[in-house]
Task: structure prediction
Amino acid sequence: MSLVGIIANPSSGKDIRRLVSDATGLDNHHKANIVRRVLRGLAAISTFAQAGPAAISHVVLMPEPAGIGHTATTGLDFPFSVAPMAMPYFGCAEDSLEAARRLADDQADVIVVLGGDGTHRLVAKACGNIPLVPISTGTNNVWPRQNEGTLAGMAAALIATGLVPPDTATRRTRRLDILRDGEPFDTALVDVAACDVPVPGARAIWDVNRIRQLVLALAHPGVLGLSSIGGSLPPPTGSERCGLALDIGDGGDTVLAPIAPGLVLPVPVRSFRWLEPGETVAITDQPGTLALDGERETIVGRDDQLAVRLEADGPTMVDVPATLELAAGAGCFIMPTATTA
Result:
């Protein structure tokens, strides 16, 4: 029997970047509505798998002070049990980390995550190889996709029940390992920025004038956030876009980059080089802080030996459209014909 986890971060999309750009808010009532749609999608597919050995037996939700899970489940019945996870919660980012850790211990089949890059980063740190179905509800949404809740729930159920084999509809994404004295101690999914801001403060980084170095796991155009700086550069000659290391400052080209919703800025790029998995970039701008996926996390001392390494074996992402296409091709959506005696 299959276990599905849902982690909905009530704090996603509420950082200070909402005050310095034209980003719209996403309140917790809206998030509860998304979770409700996820559950309906799970339930619809689950009815097809009830007789199978991998039918969904229960769904667990991360508890949080906003009551997202309670609002989402009120008045509904499901073909599986739905309950909050048995864990303490404090209304902070570490709740998502702890929930992912417990789901990994319980060997969940899939985890649906509502949040931005920061939330998915925390979940990815603890979930191991469990496939993630991302739903973007943050300020920066480069790693999580704009998946609609109903479709995300259907895809999660198809993967959890085995109606669509995970290896056909998931892909391994990259990650950035942060190294101290050559040993990894933290990770990011999208970008690591070395800033001259000495303390984490409000955490979110939006002022590109404070950034000195930038390392990207993703450098594609058509996204918002710091990774858009790399996405605004031409791809390497004769090959696809990969990781990227940039020195920010005068002396090179200036690119136009959408840093946040409604905030498109010229950014001076002194130099850059494309990265392949396994390559390492030394953090030479010190002292200051490192921002991981848009949020300042690590204080960098003057004598710290820090570096960032691009890795190919990051978290596993469920491709929702591909999952649904494979299910349709396999006839998973065709209801059995009723027979009469």
